[in-house]
Design goal:
The protein is of the alpha/beta class and about 240 residues long. The chain has two domains: about 100 residues, Elongation Factor Tu (Ef-tu), domain 3 (Beta Barrel); about 120 residues, Rossmann fold (3-Layer(aba) Sandwich). The strands form two sheets. It has a six-stranded antiparallel beta sheet. Strands 9-8-7-10-11 form a five-stranded parallel beta sheet, with helices on both faces. Helix 4 links the parallel strand 10 and strand 11. The radius of gyration is 18 Å and the shape is globular.
Length: about 240
Amino acid sequence: MQIYWTKINKIIEETPEVKTYLLDCPENFTWEEGSHTHFALEGFNAGDKPNRSLIRHMSISTLPYEGSIGITTRIREQCSEFKTVLRNLEVGNKIAIFKTHSNVPLKRENKNVYMLSSGVGLATFRPLVLDFLKRGDNVNQMHSLNIDSSKNFLFTNIFKSTPDKKFTSQFVDNRKDYYEAVRHLAADKEDGLFYVVGSDEFLIQNIEVLREQGIKPEQIMLDKHEQQLPKFLSLDLSI
């Protein structure tokens, strides 16, 4: 396993609780849209065993052409040891990244792509939207639906409807409006691909609604390793 040590080159305060950490790109390091990585703080490998409290599984919110590796995360006032350390990091501090992989690359199958997310989960979809806006080949259209009760919506400069690019974006701040919108989107039973990112509870609730509307498991894309998918997409799913 290769561990890439790199430095923070910029910290962006997206909202009062959400920050994006932009990291220098190590030599020979690359990734694709929908990628996640293991993001580790200094000291995580100082002992005989890795200190897992200093490691988190994070989505990469940028694409290689942007020149930096972006990690976007919510840091609340009351937070974990990892987030407490992260909150106090500054430009120039070192972090490590390793085991980078994409579970949700953009499928170009001449289908309609629907991206369902909660809060900062939108960071996973930012690169997919950028990729689509730059090259719309073999994707009929793309729609993003995000729920954030804080009303501090993320990346609104990118997540805005652009009809000429066949991209639409929708933000809601409550569950009733969100699931009503999901049911409306799920009317696309033949040509819809549904990407879902959020907590496990959020995934299960969305899958249940989609399945009730007749969406097949193979139409649902989750940011999970292949061996984890049956747990969420099983036919007898119930909550």
